[in-house]
Amino acid sequence: MQSVGEAFSLAISLVLSGDPDLLEIVLLSLRVSLTATIVAAAIGLPLGALIAISRFRGRNVLLILMNALMGLPPVVVGLLVYIHFSRAGPLGFLGLLYTPTVMIIAQTILITPIVAALSRQVLEDLHAEYAEQFRSLCLGRWQSVQALLWDARYSLLTVGLAGFGRAVAEVGAVIIVGGNIDHLTRVMTTAIALETSKGDLPLALALGIILMTIALGVNAAVQAVRLTALRQAYV
């Protein structure tokens, strides 16, 4: 096994050289996580907004459930998705097990409650300010949802960021439904776990460096967009 210094040196070399295997793993990770985040946002944001403006019996129970689902155990989600998409499962005929598609489905199930619960809180506070104005304009429920989502779009970037962070760091669910198959379903987190167990620290560290860089880059981009929007609002 290499020393830590040698492992870091080789990891940096792998990153700078654009190793094909490394690039393939990174691109698949981004494709799976970004797709899952977009799908989760398309479901979770309208759902969060709808719950934010609605008042009905059992709402508090639903809020408790939504908040609880934010902590869904990834391995449990992976197991449930595996059961449904295995050959003996009800969706086995689709043949999606051990493909990137089923990995996207598992990640979407994991992060949709996060997006819905966080957006509900943001939009409920905003709706408290706009409720009278919406009533005076006689806006319908879906018109109110659209108005809230548009007005809070920059704040909701942080919600999307939270979902993406959970998706890109996920390992339990994707390794169960994806199988960590080389050149097919191997993503950064599963590759890090595998290479560490094999003692290949340079590749594991290279993937870890890229994963941290992506996380920092996405955070910086979101922050830049929000700051730009705030500056324009005050001009």
Automatic annotation (TrEMBL):
Which domain of life does the UniProt lineage start with? Bacteria
InterPro entries given in the database record? ABC_perm_TupB-like, MetI-like, MetI-like_sf
Would the keyword Lipid metabolism turn up in this protein's UniProt record?
Answer: no
Where in this chain does the record put each ABC transmembrane type-1 domain? 26-222
Topology of the protein relative to the lipid bilayer: Multi-pass membrane protein
Transmembrane stretches in the record are: 33-54, 61-85, 97-118, 156-181, 201-222
Gene Ontology CC annotations of this record: plasma membrane
Which PROSITE patterns has this protein been placed in? ABC_TM1
Provide the GO biological process annotations.
Answer: transmembrane transport
Instruction: Kindly list the places in or outside the cell where this protein is found, as annotated in its UniProt entry.
Output: Cell membrane
What Pfam families would the database entry show? BPD_transp_1
What are the record keywords, sorted? Membrane, Transmembrane, Transmembrane helix, Transport
Q: Which family would the database say this protein is a member of?
A: Belongs to the binding-protein-dependent transport system permease family.
Which NCBIfam families does the record associate with it?
Answer: ABC_perm1
Name the record gives this protein = ABC transporter permease subunit
What species does this protein belong to? Algicella marina
